[in-house]
Amino acid sequence: MTKPDKEQRRVEAEVAMASSKADPLVHSSGPKEPETVVVVIGRLFSVPPEAGTPRPFHLLTRLRDRARLLGVAVVADLEPACQRFIERPEIAALFDRSWLFHRRTSSSALAHVRTLLAGRPPFDLRYKDPDTLASVHKRMHDLVRDEGPLVFYCLGLPSLQWIPEQYWQATLLDAIDAMSMATARRIKADQQISPIAKLGLRLALPAQQRYEGTVLARLGAVVYNSSLDVEYMRRLCPGAPIRRVIDGVDASYFSPEASPEVEEGDEDILFFGDMTFAPNLDAAHQLVEHIMPLVWSRCKNARAILIGPDPPESLRRLHDGQRVIVTGFVDDIRPYLKRCAVVASPLRFGAGMKNKLQAGLAMRKAMVVSTVTVEGFDDLEPGRHAIVADEPGQFAEAVTELLQDRTRRREMAEAGRVLILRSYTWESASRALWEAFGGCELASAPRKNC
Fold first, then answer.
1. 3-state SS, residue 335
2. pLDDT for 23-75, tens place per residue?
3. For the CA atoms of the chain, what is the radius of gyration?
C-alpha cells in the first residue's frame, strides 16, 4: 500500500469513528430535543441517486434524527414529478406528515407589471397567485396552532413567501447561495444569453437586492454554503443573522471503489452538470470552443465528454462522436468519472459551492478548475488538491500536463480524496445546521384567556 493510500485509509477510519460516536440528540445549542417540531417548506428536491449531492435530502436525513419533520411543498401545477416525489419511500421516511400545494404556472400581464412596479423580485407571487399564497399561509397558521411550538426550515429564498411574516423570527432560511451575486455575475459573463434576457436580469437585479436586504435581518437565521457568499451577503445585509452550512458529499457513493470494472484512461476530459443551468452551459461551450482546440494541438486523441440532462441545441451541435461527446442525461455518472483522465470545470460565473468539485475529488480524480469552481472550498490548496486556472491558455496547459503525467494525476487525486473526507462531510454540515437553529424563536399559537 502506498503512502497516500495509507493516509486515505486512516482518514476514512477517523471519519467513521467520529460519526459512530456522535450523539444526534445531545448538542450544546439548537432547539430543545427530542420534541422539536420542524416544518420544512420548499419545492421538490432530488433524492439519491438522481443527483449526486442533493443538499436538502442529506441535511433532512440527519435532521430527522434530531426532530420531528413536517413537510410542505409548493410546486408548479403541471409538474409531473410531484406525485412520484410524495410516494417515494425515502420521502415518506423523512416526514411524519406532508402537504402538497400547486401554484399557477402563468399569470396576467397586469400581475407582472404590479410586481415590477412594487419593486418585488420576479419569483414573488403576491399579485401573480394570491389564492395559493393565502392557502399556504392558512396551512402554516394551522400547523402553528396544532403542532406548535415549532420552527420553520425554508428551502431557498423564493420559498420564504410561503411563511407568514409573523413567523419569520422562527424561521431558518437555507438560501444555499447568494441569488443577487449569481445574477450580477451572469449579467457580466454569460455569453450564451440573449440581449432581451440579459435586459430582464438587469431589471430584476435591484429588486432581488432590495428584497434580500429587507427580509434577511427579520429572520431567525440565514445560512449559505460558501464563505464567499456569506461575506457578500453580510456586506449587503449588515446585522442579518447569517451563518455558513457547507455542502458535503456522500463519499461512500462517490467512491473510487465504485464501478470496479472500469479503468482510468489517458484521453478523456470530463465536464458534467445540469445543462439547463446557465453557468454549466456557458462552461461547456468554453471548454469545447476555447480550451479544447489548444489541448488538441498537443494531444490529438483527447476527447471532451459533456454529461448532463437536457443539453440545448447549441451544445448538441458540438457533438461529433469522436472528439466531442455530448451524452445528455446518464443514470450513473460514476463510471464516466472513473474512466476519465481529468475532470474539468471552467465555470466563469455562479455562486455557492460547486458539487461537481466534491464529486470529482471524492472519486479520486485529478481536476482542473476555475476560480469560480473552488469558491467556498477554503481548505483546498491549489496545485495540491486541484489545479486552478481561468484563462483558456492556462487551463489547456494544465489539462495537457495532467493527460501526459499519470503520476501527477494520482498524487493530486489521492490528496483530493483525503481533503473531502476531512473537511466536506454531510455530518459536519448537519451539525452546523442544528447550531444555526439556535438563533430561531419558537412559533406557537397565542394562549386563550380563561
1. helix
2. 332 333 445 444 689 999 998 787 776 655 689 999 999 999 999 999 999 98
3. 23
CA distance 399 to 444: 57
> Taking residues 416-443, what's their average pLDDT?
95
Q: What is the pLDDT of residues 142-193, one digit of tens each?
A: 999 999 899 999 999 999 999 999 999 999 999 999 999 999 999 999 988 9
pLDDT of residue 1: 54
User: Dihedral of CA 176/178/179/181: which sign?
Assistant: negative
**Which residues, including other chains, have CB under 8 Å from residue 185's CB and lie 6 or more apart?**
349, 350, 351, 372
Grid cell at residue 288: 469545447
| Cα distance between residue 129 and residue 60, in whole Å | 29
DSSP state of 128: T
Task: Quote the CA–CA distance of 263 and 385 in Å, as a whole number.
Answer: 21
Residues 244 and 293 in one domain: no
Which grid coordinates are listed for 14?
Answer: 477517523
CA dihedral 83, 87, 92, 95 (to 10 degrees): 10
Q: Is 15 exposed, middle or buried (0-12, 13-18, 19+ CB in 10 A)?
A: middle
Look up residue 397 and give its three cell numbers: 496547459
Same domain membership, residue 237 and residue 122: yes
Give the distance, in angstroms, between the CA of residue 152 and the centroid of all CA atoms in the same chain: 20
Examine the domain organization and report whether 210 and 291 are in the same domain.
no
Other CB atoms within 10 Å distance of the CB of residue 196: 7
Does one domain contain both 417 and 434?
Answer: no
The pLDDT > 90 percentage for the chain reads: 72
Residue (of 160, 146, 209) closest to 201 by Cα position: 209
> What burial letters (b/e) apply to 406-445, b meaning 16+ CB within 10 Å?
eeebeebbbbbbbbbbeebbbebbbbebbbbbebbebbee
Range of the domain at 210: 23-248+428-439
- Provide the residue type at 270 as one letter: L
Residue type, 55: R
Can you tell me which residue has the cell 419533520?
69
Cell digits of residue 435:
447550531
Report H helices in 262-310: 278-286, 292-296
Residues 170 and 443 sit within 8 Å (Cβ to Cβ): yes
Instruction: Record the pTM.
Output: 0.88
Tell me, yes or no, whether 351 and 390 share the same domain: yes
Distance, in Å, from the CA atom of 136 to the CA atom of 77, rounded to the nearest integer, reads 14
Among candidates 356, 350, 353, which has minimal Cα distance to 368?
A: 356
Grid cell in block for residue 222: 440565514
